[in-house]
Amino acid sequence: MRVVAAGERALLDLSFVRRGGRTVIDRRLFAWPFVLTRSFHVDRDRPDRLTVIVQTGSGAVHGEDNLAQRLTLGPGTAVCLASQGATSVHRAEPATRARESVRLHVENGASLEYLPEPRILFPDAALSQTIELDCAIDAYALIFDAFTMHDPIGIGRHFRELESTFCLRRSCSEPLLIERTRLYRPERSIFRGYGAFGSAFMVLPPGHDLAEIQKKLATALEGIRGLYGAASASPAQAGLGIRLAALELRCIRQAFEGIKAIYRETLPRPLTNFS
């Protein structure tokens, strides 16, 4: 696979605008391993929302992959971006690791749901990922991230390294939030019996009752067996951050569905016109 040099165009580069009361793609650039087919308007509650499903030709992340994504949402757009299924992250040679960078720019009045399927970390996998979100003050965003572990021969081997960074800005300001996670050759004991982990960041304009949304999230998460979850307000009251640990990946998926439903309740009614 070709490595992306610094400053080179993202391997997946999408831009969205609002036309005729709906969101459409106006820039559509992608290269191996990304595959993009048709997009859909399928949500009855938000008919202007465009659902995009990103696929990968390789079906996995390999040891020296260097993947980049850039999404730009114009004013008043609504986008839900998902992937076709869980992505395997395979073994990396010593002193190498796969890298993935995602840049998300959400302009005024727009709404983004960035909902990739979880990563499956195989033994000796090494992955460094960065998500940078620049969200206008009056825009909305929901970001999911999750992983689980799998040893094909079932002897409890783990991945080598996982480094994850999430950075939130509002209208190109200084970062409001930088959250970093790094695990290197983890021992089984640190997972305390849990086999899948996830996080969600719900970014909302000022004026929302974050305490009430937090209560709704707590109620939804408490009803899922095999799941431990907690939600807290983000700095500057920019929204909420949610952390999840589960016995099985299906519990994480169930939690994400509940979080998405609560997020969608916060959204304003779709605009009929936008200029």
Task: Map the helices and strands.
Layout: E1 12-19, E2 22-30, E3 34-36, E4 50-56, E5 60-61, E6 66-73, E7 78-83, E8 87-89, E9 98-106, E10 111-115, E11 119-121, E12 126-135, E13 140-149, E14 161-169, E15 177-184, E16 196-203, H1 210-222, E17 227-233, E18 239-246, H2 249-266
Parallel strand pairs: 1-6, 4-7, 5-8, 6-9, 7-10, 8-11, 9-12, 10-13, 11-13, 12-14
Antiparallel strand pairs: 1-2, 3-4, 13-16, 14-15, 16-18, 17-18
Helix pairs in contact: 1-2
Structure description:
The chain is globular. Helix 1 (210-222) packs antiparallel against helix 2. It has one domain (12-266). The chain has two helices and 18 strands. The model has no long low-confidence stretch (mean pLDDT 92). The chain is 11% helix and 45% strand. The strands form two sheets. Strands 3, 4, 5, 7, 8, 10, 11, 13, 16, 17 and 18 form an eleven-stranded mixed sheet that branches. The termini are far apart. The chain has helices at 210-222, 249-266; strands spanning 12-19, 22-30, 34-36, 50-56, 60-61, 66-73, 78-83, 87-89, 98-106, 111-115, 119-121, 126-135, 140-149, 161-169, 177-184, 196-203, 227-233, 239-246. With 275 residues, the chain is mainly beta. It comes from Bradyrhizobium rifense. Keywords: Chaperone, Cytoplasm, Nickel insertion. UreD, UreF and UreG form a complex that acts as a GTP-hydrolysis-dependent molecular chaperone, activating the urease apoprotein by helping to assemble the nickel containing metallocenter of UreC. The UreE protein probably delivers the nickel. Belongs to the UreD family. Required for maturation of urease via the functional incorporation of the urease nickel metallocenter.
